[in-house]
Design goal:
alpha+beta; Beta-Lactamase; 2 domains; Arc Repressor Mutant, subunit A; single chain
């Protein structure tokens, strides 16, 4: 990676770190990829067969795709005929869309998908397959009518894709704020210390019945099924000091 490429990448990372929404991250991606000719980005968790169009759309994490094409793509179920999706599901290596042409040239469905994409100036693309921390398959695509990706820059684009996707995924699925009362916070803290309801009641000088009642309230607010999960979810929300 050249000094200039490294500087551009570090500038991009700094911008993404300051972004407060996936939309701002998508803007940063398009800006850094524009010198190569790219003008669009789409990234998300790859849906599984049988998912509805609405469910497929909910898996999208970054979206700067032509609106009319997105509507056609998802409503007509093109995703499962898309050769780029098929490659993402079977490989972890980044690829140019042009590299896939020999694999679908004589197959009507993927040929139709790629042909119609060209109508929306999405004839040239570069895709980075990824695996999330939860083991889900994901894809990150840059596209435009024309673009060039020198082999020396594939590593930079892969780094950009992985960093942007991870940040956007974290923002999209950020836990909703949980508001707890001071008493709930007190009891939660002692629960995290491993104290029983009786021990907490003695420490706080309240009835064991009240502690049990508030513990049930905490489970409901944190969507937890037991004491251990309550503490785990609270840690994820940074509610335990």
């Amino acid at each position: 990676m050249s000094r200039r490429t490294l500087d551009d990448t570090l500038t991009f990372i700094a911008r993404v770190d300051k972004a407060s929404t996936p939309a701002e991250i998508a803007d940063a991606v398009v800006d850094v990829a524009r010198p190569l000719g790219f003008s669009h980005v789409l990234a998300g968790i790859i849906p599984i067969p049988g998912m509805t169009a609405e469910q497929q759309i909910s898996n999208v994490v970054l979206h700067r795709w032509p609106k009319a094409w997105s509507e056609r793509y998802f409503t007509k179920g093109y995703l499962f005929d898309d050769p780029t999706i098929q490659r993402v599901n079977t490989s972890t290596e980044p690829f140019l869309w042009s590299e896939l042409e020999p694999t679908y040239r004589n197959t009507p469905a993927p040929t139709r998908v790629m042909g119609e994409a060209r109508e929306f100036n999405l004839g040239c693309g570069f895709t980075v397959p990824m695996i999330t921390l939860n083991g889900q398959t994901a894809g990150f695509s840059l596209a435009s009518e024309r673009a060039e990706v020198p082999s020396i820059l594939r590593g930079q684009l892969q780094l950009i894709a992985m960093y942007a996707f991870a940040r956007a995924l974290g923002q999209k699925y950020k836990p909703a704020p949980v508001n707890l009362t001071p008493r709930e916070m007190d009891i939660l803290q002692w629960m995290a210390e491993g104290k029983s309801d009786w021990e907490i009641s003695v420490i706080l000088k309240v009835s064991e019945h009240l502690v049990d009642k508030i513990a049930r309230q905490l489970r409901a607010k944190l969507n937890a099924t037991n004491r251990t999960q309550t503490v785990a979810v609270a840690l994820r929300h940074n509610l335990i000091r």
